[in-house]
UniProtKB/TrEMBL annotation:
Protein name per its UniProtKB record: Kinesin-like protein
UniProt xrefs under Pfam families: Kinesin (PF00225)
PROSITE patterns membership: KINESIN_MOTOR_1, KINESIN_MOTOR_2
Protein species of origin: Dioscorea zingiberensis
Residue span, Kinesin motor domain: 18-301
BP terms from Gene Ontology: microtubule-based movement; mitotic spindle organization; spindle elongation
Amino acid sequence: MESCEDARAASAGQQKECVKVAVNIRPLITSELLMGCADCVTVVPGEPQVQIGSHSFTYDHVYGSSGTPHSLIFQECVAPLTDALFNGYNATVLAYGQTGSGKTYTMGTNYASEANCGGIIPQVMETIFKKTEAMKDTTEILLRVSFIEIFKEEVFDLLDPHLHASLRAEGPAGAKPAVAPRVPIQIRETARSHAIFTICLEQKKINTCSSKVAISDELGDDIISAKLHLVDLAGSERAKRTGADGLRLKEGIHINRGLLALGNVISALGDEKKRKEGGHIPYRDSKLTRLLQARESSLFS
Ligand SMILES: Nc1ncnc2c1ncn2[C@@H]1O[C@H](COP(=O)(O)OP(=O)(O)OP(=O)(O)O)[C@@H](O)[C@H]1O
């Protein structure tokens, strides 16, 4: 998982890195245990470091595999970004990893009920609702969310009930009934897609003083506005390695193109010299990077 924490850095004035990387090691699932799989990654006690054979890798945070518990991911990595959103800072959290590595579980992208509220997205929303409730007497708040899926370089609005109704209504022969049935929105359409959940927060202080003239200069009419993107990327494995063919291979090619473009944009933005010189940032190479750019993520602005 990568989180762009320039927001926290700016508000705390302490941390210089604008990109932080946290690794989340999920436990083996039943099917893996039945196949006799065993853990191959060990966490160095007390360090954000993992070992695979003789290789060591150090990150900003490591969760799971008896190191720091998974439950602290939100608190340590994402809660500061949620706080910063209220101070007007943009941020992006990217969940990146192989298919089945736990991205959807960690992000909570497949949230279906209160029973499954340990994921990042439900926790972010819960925190935002608590904060807005506490501020409601002093601040006008406009909260908007969007949830977009990119599948084979096509963009779908996951919060559009009509899209889901028509997808469900289409039978095997593709015949649509005259009236589309109402169906609950299912958050995740396909396993091999990127999903971007974006929260836009706008705040304006309410002038509660009866002497409006006296206070207007102090408060101004300023609207603080910021965005937080929570991105569940598609599985990162290379199509070559999966042995996929046909449709699956095509999906894999699109996914790899999106992830490659994302990597290239991050590298270009991380190159300070290039950025200062106004060098080319290849946003246009994929829908994923274009959407994140258009949405003014701190990662891409
Ligand atoms: N921290 C965890 N604890 C227990 N089970 C987990 C954990 N993380 C993931 N799992 C389980 O592992 C399996 C794969 O997880 P998940 O679907 O989130 O992977 P993914 O990386 O999103 O895969 P894909 O790329 O196909 O979307 C699921 O059965 C999920 O319930």
